[in-house]
Amino acid sequence: MEMEQPVKTNESHPLEPAIITLFNNACESTLENMYFNTHRRQIASLFVARDYLAIFGNPSLLQAYVAAYSPSRSLCYYSLFSSSETLKTSLQSANFIYSVGSGSGGELVGITAALSRTTRTTTTTPTFHSQDIADYTTALAPIHTTLKTTFPSVNLTYESSVFDILSTLQEHVSLKTECVAKADVITCFFILNELLANSKKEFVAFVKVLVMGMKQGALLVVGDSAGSFSEVAVGTSSSKPSPQQQQQRQPTYMVYHLLDAIKAFEIVEQADSQWYRYPQGLHYPVKLNNMRHFLRIYRKL
Ligand SMILES: C[S@@+](CC[C@H](N)C(=O)[O-])C[C@H]1O[C@@H](n2cnc3c(N)ncnc32)[C@H](O)[C@@H]1O
Description:
By secondary structure, the protein is of the alpha/beta class. The chain has a single domain, classed as Rossmann fold, CATH 3.40.50. It is built from 13 helices and nine strands. The chain has helices at residues 16-26, 28-31, 36-48, 52-56, 59-83, 85-93, 106-115, 137-150, 170-182, 192-198, 200-213, 243-248, 255-260, and strands at residues 96-100, 127-132, 157-162, 185-189, 219-225, 232-233, 252-253, 265-276, 291-300. A seven-stranded mixed beta sheet has the order 3-2-1-4-5-9-8. β2 (127-132), α8 and β3 (157-162) form a beta-alpha-beta unit. The protein is globular, with a radius of gyration of 19 Å. Bound molecules: S-adenosylmethionine. Residues 52, 56, 70, 73, 101-104, 106, 132-134, 164-166, 189-191, 194-195 line the site of S-adenosylmethionine. InterPro entries: Methyltransf_34. This is 25S rRNA (Uridine(2843)-N(3))-methyltransferase. It holds the Pfam family Methyltransf_34. It comes from Chytriomyces confervae.
């Protein structure tokens, strides 16, 4: 185990090594588990098959998912929240951050790291609410402990909820509506395609909750793969193209085409494709990934 050191507050001191050390320590037992590589291969082939529920519905794969995927994601989200002027400014005063599909911890670690470099303009303690269909409690427990020792200067209240964000059960509708209404920042990273794949009708209902429920000035931050993986076939109930559709070259579109058309949202920052490249010199047992993703930051009008 590497020594956990509270990170230096010096602005010029890069935080990426601290983020990777945090995962090295928090995920040590998973990384050393004899089934870890088997689980990683299983996850990778289920991603190719776009069988997301088989990954996130299987508790024995969740710890491997966190250890293998969340470090790269955290680095990317740290970079995003500490380089975008819109997001940097929002972190100075945000009181409630609602992160949809974020149970695996990537957003939590990235945003906490960015907060450690933020001078807050209010004395209130912000809340980070992680929402996910899967219960990552066991996998995230060591990450919470390690976050506190790595970023002791960050005052952040953590909450989570576990349910299908598309659920129409009254208790779930109330909870998501309440969180959406008080959020200053809502993130949807690598989740909207999955939602669209599960059900277009319920996806549209969820977008309506955002449009109707977000307060004026709140931000919706959306990012997902920029490649063809994110394309959704038009006119089908699923984003998994059938072999016949593939042959007919069904027209496809990206999730942001749908969101860009919403009149209640102003597009504040956008990129149809951008790279996050992690810095040299980071050591982690699993290969870290550079990420090509699209980005949209919408402001509710
Ligand atoms: C590809 S992972 C992305 C995780 C994280 N947002 C990130 O960027 O690292 C998708 C996440 O969305 C969650 N998810 C999938 N369908 C969901 C649903 N219907 N409601 C809530 N969460 C869902 C999965 O459990 C998983 O944690």
